[in-house]
TrEMBL record:
Residues binding FMN, per UniProt: 72, 141, 171, 228-229
Name of this protein: tRNA-dihydrouridine synthase
SUPFAM superfamilies: FMN-linked oxidoreductases (SSF51395)
Record's keyword terms, sorted: Flavoprotein, FMN, NADP, Nucleotide-binding, Oxidoreductase, RNA-binding, tRNA processing, tRNA-binding
Source organism: Candidatus Opimibacter skivensis
Amino acid sequence: MVKIRNLELGEFPLLLAPMEDVSDPPFRVLCKEFGADLLFTEFISSEGLIRDAIKSRKKLEFYERERPIGIQIFGGDEEAMAMSATIVDAVQPDLVDINFGCPVKKVVCKGAGAAVLKDIDLMVRLTKAVVKSTHLPVTVKTRLGWDDNSINIMEVAERLQDVGIEALSIHGRTRAQLYKGEADWTMIGKVKNNPAIRIPIFGNGDIDTPQKARLYRDRYGVDGIMIGRASIGYPWIFREIKHFFSTGQLLAEPTLHERVNAARKHLQHSIEWKGEKVGVMEMKRHYSNYFRSLEGIKQYRSRLVTESEPSVLFDILHQIESHYSSELVEIS
């Protein structure tokens, strides 16, 4: 049983990665429904939290049915990180996660995210400040290092464990790689198999099929896997991996009805959570992922991303289901 303090996550948990502008509550509840064991919010600026910025505060909110859930924060100032941890503590998630891995320029330029990989002493101080400011378990998500010449994840893991983190998620790329090239899990495996490491180690990067999930689990011995981009528009990835682990058999791809139903639920949750105008607008980025590979979908997708009336959007989704269902009947 993998545990983060008293939080039991199962024998081999699957984690939903925090993804900016993607892993909001409407998306997270779908991933939870299809088997994600631990969810994380989009990352939240510590500076934004202590300034009481509306966007940052909104990211603290979650559905109770999402639990267990971690709220992820980032920043480069010890005092701001400590204060934001106290704010997070008050909303009572299941854990606090620190982002030391985001490679995006606007975050790195502020000395936060992956920028902290260049200064391990600062990383330790920031982590210690968070640990001392909350009663919740503290975890960290990071990368292998800043670039190929500064891969320092072994030292990072040991020192952060020493100041009190209770789990570590490692993305198998450096900051310099961004999201390019193949993720290198070799160092993730070495960290996991380091006798000095006592906390759970979760691997992240390039897991997009059940077969790869099992291969990397067995080869590198990690305690669980964090999945990000492969879940966008495809929350079934969690269900498929778990089925493959337990049976050795691949599940059939989601049916057309399942695709439409997931998009419908996502849209409904988005409107309920964010209001009609914002909920409709922010769903536009998801439609192409739900219906990718469907021949002739472009005509429907164009309407989905330009329409603003919810009732019309739900009707378009119904039309997609009817159109492709009738095609399948004709083919059979």
